[in-house]
Amino acid sequence: MTPRISEAKYVEGYKLYLNFSDGSEGEVDFEQELIGEIFAPLKDISYFKDFTINHEIHTIVWPNGADFAPEFLYESLRIMA
User: Fold this and answer.
1) Cα 56 from Cα 21, distance rounded (Å)
2) Is the distance from CB of 21 to CB of 3 less than 8 angstroms?
3) Which of 1, 10, 22, 46 has its CA 20 to 30 A from that of 76?
4) Per-residue confidence at 32, pLDDT binned at 50, 70, 90?
5) What is the mean pLDDT of residues 54-64?
6) Which of 9, 6, 16, 2 is nearest to 54 (CA)?
7) How far apart, in whole angstroms, are the C-alpha atoms of residue 73 and residue 45?
8) Residue 58 has pLDDT above 80, yes or no
């Protein structure tokens, strides 16, 4: 089971600092991941910053419904660690 996101903070550019329930933490850079119609609004930094944690689906989401799978976020974090 993939750990859940417990905290997310904006860093700079398209980077977020994520904390997971298993203690893993670090930055994930989304700049190369904003591909497709659903992610187009996130290219505006002010919109990108407007994320929340959805505790039902255990990931970060944006007002337009965009989200990233928690498994993807966890693996992206692990690669950077």
Assistant:
1) 14
2) yes
3) 46
4) very high
5) 95
6) 6
7) 19
8) yes
Tens-digit pLDDT profile for residues 36-52: 999 999 999 999 999 99
Q: For the structural domain made of 5-80, what CATH number should be given? A: 3.30.2020.10
- Cα dist from 60 to 12, 75, 81, whole Å: 16, 15, 20
Name the one residue in this structure whose structure tokens are 């989200």: 67
Q: What is the CA radius of gyration of the chain?
A: 12
Q: How many CB atoms lie within 10 A of CB 77?
A: 21
Length of the chain: 81
Torsion sign over Cα 42, 61, 81, 11? positive
Delimit the domains of the chain by residue range.
Answer: 5-80
